[in-house]
Amino acid sequence: MISLKRLVQAMRTFFRRLYWLLTLGFGLALVYSFFGRTYLSQWRSYLDLASFILIVGWVGVNALLVYHHHFQFRDLQMEEVDQMDGEEFERFCVYLLRRNGFKRLKTTKASGDQGIDIIGTKKKKTVGFQCKRYEGQVGNKAVQEAYSGHSFYQCDEAAVITNSEFTDAAKELADQLEVMLIDRPHLKRLMRRLPS
Fold first, then answer.
1. pTM score of the predicted model
2. Residue 5 contacts by C-beta under 8 Å, 6 or more apart in sequence?
3. CA-based nearest residue to 54, from 42, 36, 46, 35
4. What is the CATH number of domain 78-193?
5. 122-154 pLDDT per residue, tens
6. CATH 3.40.1350.10 occupies which residues in the chain?
7. 174/189 Cα distance (integer angstroms)
8. Which of 1, 42, 160, 175 has the greatest number of C-beta atoms within 10 Å?
9. What's the confidence (pLDDT) of residue 166?
10. What is the 3-state secondary structure (H, E, C) of 63-91?
């Protein structure tokens, strides 16, 4: 039986290919509109309609994608963040970091990420982020993973982001290793930059 994760991945691949096919059609429609109308006059009535549909369709799909990308976490509340799974929380953190001035954000591979989930740059410093969507307190392990991962990825700084709180031991270790901790109250402050 196919797992839900594999089904979602297959659907994403299908829609990505469909999008590139639409983009190819858009390019051909533009070429026809600018250069081919005079040479293909006997099919003009069909090709004009087809090129119009392709151009409008491509523009409409891209407008929806831009809107979704910009407003996907619009008016998000902390309770909704608490309901996210790990992968969605990671995507949310990338979006949130971008809204808070980080550039060149990229995620590491899901398995074997060496303790860093996201790498971003701000003020000429590269920061490696470990994302932890937890219900309980986050302990030393997350701090240790972020610290070792930032060395592996050659980042200037390490940070752990969580929707929860850190244990006292984790805070003490983070101070000693100079790992930045972003806990629930700090995350709420960062979320003020979300579109509303």
1. 0.67
2. none
3. 46
4. 3.40.1350.10
5. 988 999 999 998 888 898 899 999 998 888 889
6. 78-193
7. 20
8. 160
9. 92
10. HHHHHHHHHCCCCCCHHHHHCCCHHHHHH
